[in-house]
Input
Amino acid sequence: MDLIKKLQNIPMPVINLIMIASIAIPLVIPLGLPIKIDPMTRAAYNTIQNMPEGSVVIFDYGMTASYIIEMGPACNSMTAQMFEKDFKILFFSGDAQGPVFAENEISPIAEEFKKTYGVDWVILGFAPGGEVAITAILADIKNVFSEDFYGTPIDNLPLMEVVQNHEQIDLAIYTGGGGDRLPAWVRQANTAYGTTVIFIPAGGMIAYATPYYPNQAAGIVGSLRGSAEYELLTRRPGAAISGMDSLSLSFLYLMFLVILCNISVIISFIKGGKK
Amino acid sequence: MSLIIKRNIPMIITFILGLFMTFVYFFEVPSSITNIENTFNGWATIIGALVAGIGIIVLLRYNIRRIQRRRGDWIYSIITVVSIFIFPVISLVYGMKSSTFNLWFTILNRNLGVAVYGIVLFALTGGVYRAFRVRNINSFLLILSCFLVMLQIAPIGEAIWSGFPSIGNWMLEIPNTGAFRGLMIASVFGTLAVAFRTLIGYERGYLGGLGEEEK
Output
């Protein structure tokens, strides 16, 4: 019983240090565990692969500092896949930070694929107003954005001469942690106009997004695991794949902590006595 | 200000606009009417931007008052006020495309934001170690389902036993989807009820500064 009491009263610094070690060690000494592709991730990948070259995509880039590690790799891999197929991509965000992250993350990929800003991709900017902004953008982009993120008049961008509203948009992608925004895209894009929708939700939103698959959402690439799977599918290994081993060890450690927390309950259950 | 202006006119506007937007969403209408709908949507986006601005003003007011009165952790209020002005000043002086703006954004927003998000891990670890106790069958089932979903997400789950991903996927696709769809349908009915009550004037919370008698 002394041992059980000691195990249930380990100092928090020790607990936290072991957690840090379980995350840091696999980054230096990878375990190399295989990653199986989830059907929802594969569906998202196949949806984009099966679309014709030159398709137009509107990307709701709701990225913040909290989500960039989790969903950033998936967004980057998906953008690379779309650039490879000469898709035209319009980025905007319902979060004020989104366009800045889009600039930082997408510019290197655009350079890699020799894509021209204004012709192949555009960052429209920040559109407040939640679902109403999505409605307004899909109805008439110029009604919401008179200039792009850099202050260039929309009429001066060659891509915006071709894309005016939902009729020219073939695919809508949403990434972010906003619970309200997922059903908003379903209502305003998929239900209203039949536009194909793909989600890249945060970990806590996967359970919320799954009910929309496969009828409303063509694919869901959830959290860091989805990002790792997408990096595998697009053959662009990066931060997400390298983080999977850390995820494995840290999850195992969390489960071990739960068992440790309940060790007295487990022992009394085994002995069949009172708690 | 008379009740007609404070209460009746806003309610009439709400009724007419609510009915109009609902009608346009569900029925095929001429493009002239769709253009009116687009105009209203554009106005709503502008109002959204104004609301964001009002939020910043309220935040500034609160923190400046705390600094003036030296109340509580007023040092952090100084940091908040300075932080609100850093990026507008940098973008006005150097421009948003400048390397200076990018550097400050990376240091202050991105790196600090990721670090703060990472600290949540330690709070989670402490909470798991101290509070995740099985007290009854419900808490046991909760912890069991957490384990199964974690073993589905982490590649080590499949390395331990090939059945874990299937069980985790089943949990996401069947009980979770069923429960969430039920929740969504229930919440939609609730939203419809509130929307209908708002349209006919029974819900007046959005009118704001009216007294109980005036409502």
In short: The radius of gyration of chain B is 26 Å. Helices of chain B lie at 3-26, 31-69, 74-94, 99-131, 137-153, 155-160, 163-199.
